[in-house]
Amino acid sequence: MFPLLSHLTPAHPFHGYGWDEGFAESFVDCAEGDQSLTPARIVRVDRGRCEVVVPDGAGVRTVRADVAPVATGDPLAIMCTGDFAAVDLGQGCVRALLPRRTAFVRSTSSKRSEGQILAANVDQAVIAVSLAAELDLGRIERFLALAWESGAQPQVVLTKSDLVPDPHALSHLVSDAETVAPGVQVLPVSAATGDGVDVLAAQLVSGTSVLLGQSGAGKSTLANALLGEAVQDVQATRDADGKGRHTTTTRDLLPLPWGGVLIDTPGLRGVGLWDAEEGLSQVFSEVEALAETCRFHDCAHQGEPGCAVLAAVADGSLPERRLDSYRKLMRENQRLAARTDARLRAEIRRDWKQKQALGRHMMERKGRGR
User: What residues make up the domain containing 336?
Assistant: First the structure.
Protein backbone atom coordinates (compact mmCIF):
# COMPACT_ATOMS: atom_id res chain seq x y z
CA MET A 1 0.00 0.00 0.00
CA PHE A 2 2.84 2.39 0.89
CA PRO A 3 5.94 1.59 -1.25
CA LEU A 4 8.04 3.84 1.00
CA LEU A 5 7.53 1.54 3.98
CA SER A 6 9.04 -1.45 2.16
CA HIS A 7 12.38 0.39 2.02
CA LEU A 8 12.42 1.04 5.78
CA THR A 9 14.34 -2.12 6.69
CA PRO A 10 15.86 -2.49 10.19
CA ALA A 11 19.15 -1.22 8.74
CA HIS A 12 17.59 2.05 7.53
CA PRO A 13 18.66 5.15 9.52
CA PHE A 14 15.03 5.97 10.31
CA HIS A 15 15.00 2.94 12.62
CA GLY A 16 17.69 4.71 14.61
CA TYR A 17 15.01 7.25 15.48
CA GLY A 18 12.82 4.58 17.08
CA TRP A 19 10.81 3.47 14.04
CA ASP A 20 9.71 -0.19 14.09
CA GLU A 21 7.03 -2.52 12.74
CA GLY A 22 4.53 -1.44 15.36
CA PHE A 23 4.73 2.20 14.33
CA ALA A 24 4.63 1.13 10.66
CA GLU A 25 1.30 -0.61 11.28
CA SER A 26 0.00 2.45 13.14
CA PHE A 27 1.04 4.66 10.24
CA VAL A 28 -0.87 2.53 7.72
CA ASP A 29 -4.00 2.69 9.89
CA CYS A 30 -3.61 6.41 10.43
CA ALA A 31 -2.88 7.30 6.79
CA GLU A 32 -5.93 5.36 5.52
CA GLY A 33 -4.41 4.81 2.10
CA ASP A 34 -3.38 8.44 1.49
CA GLN A 35 -0.22 8.03 -0.60
CA SER A 36 0.73 11.70 -0.09
CA LEU A 37 1.64 11.03 3.53
CA THR A 38 5.10 10.18 4.87
CA PRO A 39 6.04 8.78 8.29
CA ALA A 40 7.99 11.23 10.45
CA ARG A 41 9.21 11.76 13.98
CA ILE A 42 8.91 15.15 15.63
CA VAL A 43 12.27 16.39 16.87
CA ARG A 44 11.18 19.87 18.01
CA VAL A 45 7.99 21.93 18.43
CA ASP A 46 8.23 25.70 18.47
CA ARG A 47 5.52 28.36 18.07
CA GLY A 48 3.03 26.58 15.87
CA ARG A 49 5.61 24.83 13.72
CA CYS A 50 7.74 21.77 14.23
CA GLU A 51 10.82 20.08 12.89
CA VAL A 52 10.46 16.45 11.84
CA VAL A 53 12.87 13.84 10.58
CA VAL A 54 11.63 11.81 7.59
CA PRO A 55 13.05 8.96 5.50
CA ASP A 56 14.87 10.22 2.42
CA GLY A 57 16.03 7.41 0.14
CA ALA A 58 18.71 5.49 1.99
CA GLY A 59 18.95 8.18 4.69
CA VAL A 60 16.89 10.74 6.57
CA ARG A 61 16.41 14.50 6.42
CA THR A 62 14.92 17.16 8.66
CA VAL A 63 12.09 19.39 7.42
CA ARG A 64 9.81 21.99 8.99
CA ALA A 65 6.08 21.49 9.07
CA ASP A 66 2.95 23.33 10.19
CA VAL A 67 1.15 21.86 13.22
CA ALA A 68 -2.23 23.56 12.62
CA PRO A 69 -4.08 20.59 11.04
CA VAL A 70 -3.82 18.62 14.28
CA ALA A 71 -4.36 21.52 16.69
CA THR A 72 -6.55 20.56 19.64
CA GLY A 73 -7.89 22.08 22.82
CA ASP A 74 -6.74 19.07 24.82
CA PRO A 75 -3.28 19.87 26.30
CA LEU A 76 -2.48 16.14 26.44
CA ALA A 77 -3.37 15.58 22.78
CA ILE A 78 -1.23 18.29 21.23
CA MET A 79 1.94 17.15 19.49
CA CYS A 80 5.23 17.14 21.32
CA THR A 81 8.82 16.09 20.84
CA GLY A 82 9.04 12.33 20.37
CA ASP A 83 5.70 11.91 18.63
CA PHE A 84 5.53 9.89 15.42
CA ALA A 85 3.32 11.48 12.78
CA ALA A 86 1.92 11.29 9.27
CA VAL A 87 3.24 14.29 7.34
CA ASP A 88 2.19 15.77 4.01
CA LEU A 89 5.51 17.03 2.63
CA GLY A 90 3.82 18.66 -0.36
CA GLN A 91 1.61 20.80 1.87
CA GLY A 92 4.29 21.11 4.56
CA CYS A 93 2.06 20.06 7.43
CA VAL A 94 1.44 17.32 9.97
CA ARG A 95 -1.83 15.53 9.20
CA ALA A 96 -2.07 13.18 12.16
CA LEU A 97 -0.19 11.81 15.17
CA LEU A 98 0.36 8.07 15.61
CA PRO A 99 -0.83 6.54 18.90
CA ARG A 100 1.69 7.05 21.71
CA ARG A 101 3.24 4.15 23.58
CA THR A 102 4.42 6.24 26.52
CA ALA A 103 4.00 9.85 27.58
CA PHE A 104 5.77 11.81 30.33
CA VAL A 105 3.18 14.17 31.82
CA ARG A 106 3.27 16.61 34.73
CA SER A 107 0.59 18.95 36.06
CA THR A 108 0.85 22.60 35.13
CA SER A 109 1.13 25.41 37.66
CA SER A 110 -2.24 26.78 36.56
CA LYS A 111 -5.41 26.43 38.64
CA ARG A 112 -7.19 24.67 35.78
CA SER A 113 -5.83 21.22 36.68
CA GLU A 114 -4.25 20.74 33.29
CA GLY A 115 -1.54 18.28 32.37
CA GLN A 116 1.51 19.15 30.30
CA ILE A 117 3.13 16.49 28.17
CA LEU A 118 6.93 16.79 28.09
CA ALA A 119 7.95 13.89 25.83
CA ALA A 120 6.34 11.01 23.97
CA ASN A 121 7.33 7.46 23.02
CA VAL A 122 10.17 7.35 25.54
CA ASP A 123 11.80 4.08 26.61
CA GLN A 124 14.09 5.43 29.35
CA ALA A 125 13.72 8.46 31.62
CA VAL A 126 17.09 9.75 32.82
CA ILE A 127 16.57 11.89 35.92
CA ALA A 128 19.53 14.24 36.42
CA VAL A 129 20.20 15.32 40.01
CA SER A 130 23.10 17.67 40.77
CA LEU A 131 25.55 16.91 43.55
CA ALA A 132 26.45 20.61 43.68
CA ALA A 133 23.58 21.02 46.15
CA GLU A 134 22.10 18.93 48.95
CA LEU A 135 20.15 15.93 47.68
CA ASP A 136 16.43 16.60 47.58
CA LEU A 137 15.07 13.08 48.04
CA GLY A 138 11.48 14.26 47.79
CA ARG A 139 12.11 15.75 44.36
CA ILE A 140 13.69 12.49 43.20
CA GLU A 141 10.58 10.63 44.36
CA ARG A 142 8.38 13.02 42.37
CA PHE A 143 10.36 12.54 39.18
CA LEU A 144 10.39 8.78 39.66
CA ALA A 145 6.61 8.66 40.15
CA LEU A 146 6.02 10.52 36.90
CA ALA A 147 8.60 8.39 35.08
CA TRP A 148 7.04 5.11 36.21
CA GLU A 149 3.58 6.43 35.38
CA SER A 150 4.71 7.35 31.87
CA GLY A 151 5.59 3.75 31.07
CA ALA A 152 9.31 4.45 30.70
CA GLN A 153 12.10 2.82 32.71
CA PRO A 154 13.58 5.46 35.04
CA GLN A 155 17.23 5.91 35.92
CA VAL A 156 18.73 8.39 38.40
CA VAL A 157 21.97 10.08 37.35
CA LEU A 158 23.86 12.04 40.01
CA THR A 159 25.65 14.70 37.98
CA LYS A 160 28.76 16.73 38.87
CA SER A 161 30.21 13.84 40.88
CA ASP A 162 33.65 15.49 40.57
CA LEU A 163 32.45 17.98 43.19
CA VAL A 164 32.43 15.10 45.72
CA PRO A 165 36.08 13.90 45.62
CA ASP A 166 35.74 11.73 48.73
CA PRO A 167 34.75 8.20 47.49
CA HIS A 168 33.14 7.38 50.84
CA ALA A 169 30.98 10.52 50.76
CA LEU A 170 29.99 9.82 47.14
CA SER A 171 29.05 6.25 48.02
CA HIS A 172 26.90 7.54 50.86
CA LEU A 173 25.05 9.92 48.50
CA VAL A 174 24.43 7.11 46.02
CA SER A 175 23.09 4.96 48.85
CA ASP A 176 20.74 7.75 49.98
CA ALA A 177 19.36 8.06 46.46
CA GLU A 178 18.94 4.29 46.17
CA THR A 179 16.74 4.24 49.29
CA VAL A 180 14.09 6.30 47.47
CA ALA A 181 14.50 4.55 44.12
CA PRO A 182 13.65 0.85 44.49
CA GLY A 183 14.22 -1.04 41.27
CA VAL A 184 16.09 1.90 39.72
CA GLN A 185 19.79 2.22 38.95
CA VAL A 186 21.56 5.20 40.51
CA LEU A 187 24.69 6.24 38.62
CA PRO A 188 27.14 9.03 39.58
CA VAL A 189 28.59 10.81 36.53
CA SER A 190 30.81 13.78 35.78
CA ALA A 191 30.70 15.44 32.39
CA ALA A 192 33.82 17.40 33.41
CA THR A 193 36.01 14.33 34.00
CA GLY A 194 34.06 11.78 31.96
CA ASP A 195 33.53 9.47 34.94
CA GLY A 196 30.43 7.34 34.41
CA VAL A 197 29.54 8.94 31.07
CA ASP A 198 30.63 5.89 29.06
CA VAL A 199 28.55 3.63 31.31
CA LEU A 200 25.48 5.82 30.81
CA ALA A 201 26.09 6.07 27.05
CA ALA A 202 26.23 2.28 26.76
CA GLN A 203 22.80 2.04 28.41
CA LEU A 204 21.24 4.51 25.97
CA VAL A 205 22.44 2.95 22.71
CA SER A 206 18.97 1.79 21.69
CA GLY A 207 15.52 3.30 21.93
CA THR A 208 14.53 6.78 23.03
CA SER A 209 15.70 8.41 26.26
CA VAL A 210 14.54 11.66 27.85
CA LEU A 211 16.79 13.77 30.06
CA LEU A 212 14.91 15.41 32.94
CA GLY A 213 15.85 17.54 35.91
CA GLN A 214 15.62 20.97 37.47
CA SER A 215 17.55 24.00 36.24
CA GLY A 216 21.24 23.75 37.10
CA ALA A 217 21.26 19.94 37.19
CA GLY A 218 23.83 19.86 34.39
CA LYS A 219 21.53 18.31 31.77
CA SER A 220 22.87 20.28 28.81
CA THR A 221 26.48 19.59 29.79
CA LEU A 222 25.67 15.90 30.16
CA ALA A 223 23.83 15.89 26.83
CA ASN A 224 26.90 17.37 25.13
CA ALA A 225 29.10 14.71 26.72
CA LEU A 226 26.80 11.95 25.47
CA LEU A 227 26.58 13.50 22.00
CA GLY A 228 30.33 14.01 21.78
CA GLU A 229 29.96 17.65 20.71
CA ALA A 230 28.71 20.99 22.04
CA VAL A 231 25.17 20.83 20.65
CA GLN A 232 23.37 22.33 23.65
CA ASP A 233 24.26 25.73 25.16
CA VAL A 234 25.59 25.68 28.71
CA GLN A 235 25.35 28.37 31.40
CA ALA A 236 26.99 28.59 34.81
CA THR A 237 25.02 27.81 37.96
CA ARG A 238 24.89 29.96 41.09
CA ASP A 239 27.48 28.97 43.67
CA ALA A 240 25.07 29.68 46.54
CA ASP A 241 22.54 26.97 45.77
CA GLY A 242 23.73 25.20 42.63
CA LYS A 243 20.72 26.42 40.64
CA GLY A 244 20.87 27.78 37.14
CA ARG A 245 18.86 29.47 34.44
CA HIS A 246 16.97 27.65 31.71
CA THR A 247 19.77 26.88 29.24
CA THR A 248 17.60 24.59 27.10
CA THR A 249 14.40 26.39 26.05
CA THR A 250 12.90 23.76 23.75
CA ARG A 251 12.64 19.98 23.83
CA ASP A 252 15.03 18.61 21.24
CA LEU A 253 15.32 15.03 20.00
CA LEU A 254 18.98 14.37 19.19
CA PRO A 255 20.58 11.25 17.65
CA LEU A 256 23.30 9.69 19.81
CA PRO A 257 26.56 8.73 18.05
CA TRP A 258 26.40 5.04 19.02
CA GLY A 259 22.68 4.57 18.46
CA GLY A 260 19.43 5.66 20.03
CA VAL A 261 18.09 9.18 20.44
CA LEU A 262 18.00 11.58 23.39
CA ILE A 263 15.33 14.17 24.20
CA ASP A 264 16.81 17.07 26.17
CA THR A 265 14.25 19.14 28.07
CA PRO A 266 14.27 22.56 29.74
CA GLY A 267 14.93 22.64 33.47
CA LEU A 268 11.81 22.07 35.56
CA ARG A 269 11.26 24.26 38.61
CA GLY A 270 7.96 22.61 39.44
CA VAL A 271 7.33 18.87 39.30
CA GLY A 272 3.60 18.48 39.88
CA LEU A 273 2.09 15.02 39.91
CA TRP A 274 -0.45 14.12 37.25
CA ASP A 275 -2.62 11.03 37.74
CA ALA A 276 0.40 9.19 39.12
CA GLU A 277 -1.16 6.61 41.46
CA GLU A 278 0.53 3.64 39.78
CA GLY A 279 3.82 5.52 39.60
CA LEU A 280 3.67 6.30 43.31
CA SER A 281 2.98 2.62 44.04
CA GLN A 282 6.20 1.78 42.19
CA VAL A 283 8.25 4.43 43.98
CA PHE A 284 6.94 3.42 47.41
CA SER A 285 6.75 -0.29 46.70
CA GLU A 286 8.10 -1.20 50.15
CA VAL A 287 5.39 0.86 51.86
CA GLU A 288 2.68 -0.74 49.73
CA ALA A 289 4.09 -4.21 50.44
CA LEU A 290 3.96 -3.54 54.17
CA ALA A 291 0.41 -2.19 53.88
CA GLU A 292 -0.69 -5.55 52.49
CA THR A 293 0.08 -7.14 55.86
CA CYS A 294 -1.76 -4.58 58.02
CA ARG A 295 -4.58 -5.99 60.15
CA PHE A 296 -7.19 -3.83 58.40
CA HIS A 297 -7.36 -3.66 54.61
CA ASP A 298 -8.29 0.04 54.74
CA CYS A 299 -5.58 0.94 57.25
CA ALA A 300 -4.59 4.60 57.00
CA HIS A 301 -1.30 4.01 58.87
CA GLN A 302 -2.20 6.68 61.39
CA GLY A 303 -2.26 4.64 64.61
CA GLU A 304 -4.55 1.72 63.86
CA PRO A 305 -3.81 -1.50 65.80
CA GLY A 306 -1.86 -4.08 63.83
CA CYS A 307 -0.45 -1.52 61.35
CA ALA A 308 2.60 -3.13 59.72
CA VAL A 309 3.72 0.18 58.24
CA LEU A 310 3.94 1.95 61.59
CA ALA A 311 5.60 -1.13 63.10
CA ALA A 312 8.30 -0.90 60.42
CA VAL A 313 8.83 2.78 61.25
CA ALA A 314 9.10 1.90 64.94
CA ASP A 315 11.74 -0.79 64.42
CA GLY A 316 13.71 1.38 61.98
CA SER A 317 13.27 -0.78 58.88
CA LEU A 318 11.19 1.97 57.21
CA PRO A 319 12.48 5.56 57.52
CA GLU A 320 9.86 7.92 58.90
CA ARG A 321 10.78 10.45 56.20
CA ARG A 322 9.81 7.86 53.63
CA LEU A 323 6.35 7.37 55.13
CA ASP A 324 5.83 11.13 55.44
CA SER A 325 6.72 11.58 51.78
CA TYR A 326 4.39 8.74 50.78
CA ARG A 327 1.49 10.36 52.62
CA LYS A 328 2.23 13.80 51.19
CA LEU A 329 2.47 12.69 47.57
CA MET A 330 -0.57 10.43 47.81
CA ARG A 331 -2.63 13.33 49.21
CA GLU A 332 -1.37 15.64 46.45
CA ASN A 333 -2.20 13.14 43.74
CA GLN A 334 -5.64 12.53 45.23
CA ARG A 335 -6.40 16.26 45.40
CA LEU A 336 -5.46 16.70 41.76
CA ALA A 337 -7.59 13.73 40.74
CA ALA A 338 -10.51 15.15 42.72
CA ARG A 339 -10.27 18.43 40.85
CA THR A 340 -10.73 16.61 37.55
CA ASP A 341 -12.94 13.67 38.61
CA ALA A 342 -16.36 14.59 39.99
CA ARG A 343 -17.09 11.11 41.36
CA LEU A 344 -13.79 10.90 43.22
CA ARG A 345 -14.34 14.43 44.49
CA ALA A 346 -17.70 13.35 45.92
CA GLU A 347 -16.12 10.29 47.56
CA ILE A 348 -13.46 12.43 49.24
CA ARG A 349 -16.12 14.89 50.44
CA ARG A 350 -18.22 12.04 51.84
CA ASP A 351 -15.18 10.54 53.59
CA TRP A 352 -14.32 13.94 55.06
CA LYS A 353 -17.85 14.37 56.41
CA GLN A 354 -17.69 10.92 58.02
CA LYS A 355 -14.41 11.83 59.70
CA GLN A 356 -15.90 15.12 60.91
CA ALA A 357 -18.90 13.27 62.38
CA LEU A 358 -16.60 10.76 64.07
CA GLY A 359 -14.52 13.60 65.49
CA ARG A 360 -17.60 15.31 66.94
CA HIS A 361 -18.75 11.99 68.40
CA MET A 362 -15.37 11.41 70.10
CA MET A 363 -15.39 14.95 71.49
CA GLU A 364 -18.88 14.39 72.90
CA ARG A 365 -17.81 11.11 74.54
CA LYS A 366 -14.75 12.81 75.99
CA GLY A 367 -16.98 15.58 77.36
CA ARG A 368 -19.39 13.14 79.00
CA GLY A 369 -16.46 11.31 80.62
CA ARG A 370 -15.30 14.36 82.50
Answer: 284-368
Is residue 266 over pLDDT 80? Answer: yes
**In angstroms, what CA-CA distances link 318 with 72, 76, 155, 179, 290?**
46, 37, 22, 10, 10
Number of domains in the chain: 3
Residue 234: other Cβ atoms inside 10 A: 17
pLDDT of residue 236: 47
Rounded to an integer, what distance in angstroms lies between the CA atom of residue 179 and that of residue 36?
Answer: 52
Bridge-based pairing state of the strands 115-120 and 59-66: unpaired
Give pLDDT tens digits for 3-14. 778 889 888 999
- List CB contacts of 363: < 8 A, sequence separation 6 or more: none
Instruction: Please report, for residues 32, 77, 263, 270, 274, the alpha-carbon distance to residue 107 in angstroms, rounded to integers and kept in the order given.
Output: 34, 14, 20, 9, 5
Q: Is 175 helix (H, G, I), strand (E, B) or coil?
A: helix
Same domain (yes/no): 202, 245: yes
- The candidate with the shortest Cα–Cα distance to 24, out of 2, 57, 52, is 2
| Listed residues 264, 292, 321: the one ending a domain | 264
Picking from 198, 234, 193, 194, the residue whose alpha carbon sits closest to that of residue 217 is 234
CA distances, 102 to each of 34, 79, 122 (Å): 26, 13, 6
Q: Do 248 and 266 form a contact (C-beta atoms < 8 A)?
A: yes
DSSP β-ladder status, 84-88 and 93-97: antiparallel
